[in-house]
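Researcher: I need the complex structure. Ligand is flavin-adenine dinucleotide. Inputs:
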Amino acid sequence: MKDLNRREFGKLIGVAGAASVPLTGFGNFAIAQAAAKVVIIGGGAGGATVAHYLKKGSPKLDVTLVEPGKQYTTCFFSNLYLGGFRTYDSLVHRYDDLAKLGVKMVHELATGIDTAKKTVKLSGGRTLAYDNLVLSPGIDFKWESVPGYSAEAAEKMPHAYKAGPQTQLLKKQLEAMPDGGVVVMVNPPGPYRCPPGPYERMCMIAHHIKTKKPKSKLVVLDPKKDIISKGPVFKEAFEGIYKNIIEINLSTEIDSHAIARLDAKTMEIETKAGKKVKAAVANIIPAQKAGEIAAKAGVTEGDWCPVNGEDFSSKKAKDVYVLGDASIAAEMPKSAFSANSQAKVVANAIEAALAGKQKFPARYRNTCWSMLAPNNSVKVGANYTPKEGKLAPADGFVSKPGEDAALRKQTFEESLGWYSGIVSDIFAKKVS
Ligand SMILES: Cc1cc2nc3c(=O)[nH]c(=O)nc-3n(C[C@H](O)[C@H](O)[C@H](O)COP(=O)(O)OP(=O)(O)OC[C@H]3O[C@@H](n4cnc5c(N)ncnc54)[C@H](O)[C@@H]3O)c2cc1C
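Model: Output:
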């Protein structure tokens, strides 16, 4: 299948969110509200999509996107880079097309939010006022969840779970590792971004070992008792394609293979169950929480941000929306597809509030593809609607063990199309 253009991606995401919402046509209300200000924090899968759809649908809205990076590196497909199936450059995207649409790009960090005064403080010292605020800051790490691990230790034992230099570091270490070296992966407890992400990464690292370092192996320490997404197809790959390469230690009791201690100097890691491993390369993925700015804004409850499933408005602050990984969107998984789908509903809700547009019932969709081996990918997905305080899944589907090679190849090609479609949709890229 060739790469999808935006129209084809639209068909793929089908009923997602407000994708079906008409994007043109203003009433007098919109003109009266021309100066309404929307500030969006976080230029990733969620925030950049909101900026795109707001500016495309209601050009007169004053839309500011606050994002420290001048370019965004996708976590999605970063495992394929680790496996040697993707260049690093192919993961990197700029904000130029959003700026051309009229989105005001502010490359600073939001350092404080006053939801009573409706203002955002920036690292450069300025303060922005808003009518509506959108938070899509992704995740931050709970370093203390892995005793001995820290931001400093991550320079030696990368997490590679926020894409960028960390991903490059892990790739460099895997390439430099002597044949026979042991790669250790520490998987996170739930909830975390991209439920199948660590297991896809295991396949990609195992593929690297199989093809480049045949005397090496991958030892995985997992605080969970089972694989929480696409378990049967991953297990089939671990026991088949990667037999004798992957050793996965799932916990027999809750947390038994959570980390008791880790030493970044000696590269020794020990689990609560007493399993000890010395790593040549260590990939440590700690427990996660909403990006720190969410807690500073006072919109968290525990580690994550409670929202109303009808439009992702915050349950904690008026005129604030929180979407993507930072939000509590159960049972939607924390994924780029989810964030992109939620963003269209948020944009529609803001247009209804500030530009006099009709508000449509929320419908969401997610699909997560994972690459197991060359031309061999699997997927899981569902549609979601708000129901009794949750986002209830319907029409779910998941790849099954034993599928034939042609179907797996088709699923892989579909994932390539999805990637090019979604990055165009997020960053308002022109597609030919
Ligand atoms: C290895 C891996 C593989 C994955 N594979 C897939 C996949 O195949 N499919 C899929 O759908 N999803 C996948 N994901 C998940 C996906 O990357 C995330 O779910 C998605 O990026 C979430 O979007 P977001 O907008 O919530 O956060 P992000 O995309 O992380 O964006 C958050 C942005 O906010 C910015 N920010 C944070 N704090 C501030 C602040 N104070 N001020 C200003 N800006 C701030 C950050 O710089 C960042 O750019 C994967 C993730 C990983 C780690």
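Model: Summary of the prediction. Residues 41-47, 66-69, 72, 75-76, 78-79, 109-110, 136-138, 161, 193-194, 197, 201, 291, 293, 324-326, 334-337, 339, 368-369 surround flavin-adenine dinucleotide (CB under 6 Å).
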